[in-house]
Amino acid sequence: MKIKILLAEDDISLGFIISDQLKSEGYTVTLCTDGADALKRFNEDNYHLCIFDVMMPKKDGFSLAKDIRKINQDIPILFLTAKSMTEDKVEGFKSGADDYLTKPFSVEELQLRISALLKRVQIVTETKENPIVTIGEYAFDTENFILKHSRFEKTLTKKEAMVLKLLCKFKNQVTPRDMVLNSVWGQDDYFVGRSLDVFITKLRKYLSEDANIQISNVHGIGFKLQVKE
Fold it and tell me: Which end of the chain has fewer CB atoms at under 10 Å, N or C?
């Protein structure tokens, strides 16, 4: 099985160098040049390790790591930064980093850090996540975007599936609105916000066969997928 790495680096030249080197080592690499795109990509696929630059446009590495930790507590996160100040390292670890590499660094050191982080999560990388999520009386196939009920079946659009998958991760908890917008659309503004409201309305309709399921608005914060067991 190939290890998938999400790399976010706004220095395009450095990003390509790191990406090409990691690919030559047998890794599958997705390269992003800003934090917002990285969060969106993270929600679209399953990764085994993240490598983030700290100073990036749209969303910095610290904010990106904090958002990803809300979704996944286990995935290793390695920061790349030109900063070596103690307070920056402390902030990095507080935001969810597992390791820290200060620029400039050697390719050999990067490879060793990656190998060490992957060894910590060996079981996780060898275990395939179950793509079928149970939501009350529904079965949600997260890989094929199919929502099934004994009286209903719907193939969701990619964005519908991404929104529902996020709501499922926070089932019976509040899912922050800005996290959904940034994870699915890669931005948080009025127009995509209106699109999200339309998607929530559609998901409510799709899930209406089960009276024990409700997607409620939490004013000023986000949404809550409530499922009575």
Answer: C
